[in-house]
Design brief:
Blueprint: E1 2-7, H1 13-22, E2 27-30, E3 42-46, H2 50-53, E4 61-64, E5 82-84, H3 89-107, H4 110-118, E6 132-136, H5 140-151, E7 155-159, E8 169-172, H6 175-181, E9 187-190, H7 204-207, E10 215-218, H8 227-235, E11 241-244, E12 264-266, H9 276-291
Parallel strand pairs: 1-2, 1-3, 3-4, 4-5, 6-7, 6-9, 7-8, 9-10, 10-11, 11-12
Helix pairs in contact: 1-9, 3-5
Length: 306
């Protein structure tokens, strides 16, 4: 078995060393320092170069380095290649804490107080009463976040592409139901997978359906948001504020208006970072399962892209 690591803009030394401990009999290479690409059967990928895939004639399986697979162009893979993703409980805990923390920050007006501190203004105000969190996307991460929010007395609703049932959460899956839900969203949390159907979903039309006190929290992908439309919505008080952890270009360029906008909280794609130990364990198990011709864990439906 030959395993190839193809992860852009990251030091993979720790990942490779950990994988080698799990898989002492497996050849592990890193792109582009790999001379025998024709023997590669398994790839761990994140933003791998497009020209790489056509050089892997014996490829059988690909694992994303993270929970999503949007960094892999599935159209470049042969139909028989199995695609998997990482499911990390620690990652889910991190995401739930991030979403709860930033929802509470907006509820408690913390950004407003940070600005007042700089200006030495002593102006106490009651916290907002807004308490309804609506999720766009309700997979494993969204459901984990919902549990944390419910435990902290928030009301939770969720939109997903397929029907879901979850205790104490109002779940909808049609566009008509979503349209009825958006005007009730005090906090709109985007956790959608990135597909051609969800790209640019957060635009003027959607933002205009939110209440004026509404807050956007995007922890999915930057491509879900039409950035100019969001700036328009904030500048014209269509919504109150936004917390953004993901962007179309990362790192966020120094000249980008999000950095200095007083209604935007910027974080550097840190809401939920994959644990190297967890990634290595899951990849190693799937490499072993592939060698035994067993079904791989956490497979992605390639027709849906998630």
């Amino acid at each position: 078995m030959h395993l190839l690591i193809a992860i852009s803009n990251r030091d993979c030394t720790k990942l490779i060393n950990t994988l080698q401990k799990h898989l002492p009999d497996v050849e592990i290479s890193q792109w582009p320092s790999c001379s025998n690409l024709d023997t590669v059967e398994f790839v761990v990928a994140w933003q791998a170069p497009e020209q790489m895939w056509q050089q892997l004639p014996n490829l059988k399986a690909v694992s994303s380095f993270g929970a999503g697979v949007d960094s892999i162009d599935l159209d470049l893979l042969a139909d028989n290649v199995v695609v998997t993703r990482i499911v990390d409980e620690l990652l889910a805990d991190d995401m739930a804490e991030y979403v709860l923390a930033h929802t509470l920050a907006h509820k408690l007006k913390l950004q407003e107080y940070f600005i007042k501190q700089v200006n030495q203004l002593w102006q106490p105000k009651r916290a907002h009463e807004f308490n309804h969190v609506v999720f766009l996307g309700f997979g494993q991460l969204g459901q984990h976040c919902a549990k944390r929010l419910l435990a902290n007395n928030f009301k939770v609703s969720a939109f997903s592409q397929s029907p879901k049932q979850f205790t104490d959460v109002t779940c909808v899956h049609s566009q008509e139901e979503l349209a009825r839900l958006l005007p009730q969203a005090d906090y709109l949390v985007c956790l959608l997978p990135l597909t051609p159907h969800t790209e640019n979903i957060i635009d003027k039309a959607l933002l205009s359906q939110l209440p004026q006190h509404g807050v956007l929290i995007n922890v999915a992908r930057g491509q879900h948001v039409v950035e100019d439309d969001l700036l328009w919505a904030l500048d014209n008080k269509v919504i109150r504020a936004a917390t953004l952890d993901v962007f179309r270009q990362e790192p966020l360029p120094a000249e980008h208006p999000f950095w200095s906008h007083d209604a935007v909280t910027v974080t550097p794609h840190c809401a939920a970072l994959s644990s190297v130990a967890s990634v290595a364990q899951q990849v190693a198990e799937n490499v072993q399962r592939l060698g035994k011709r067993l079904e791989l864990n956490h497979q992605v439906d390639r027709t849906k892209g998630y």
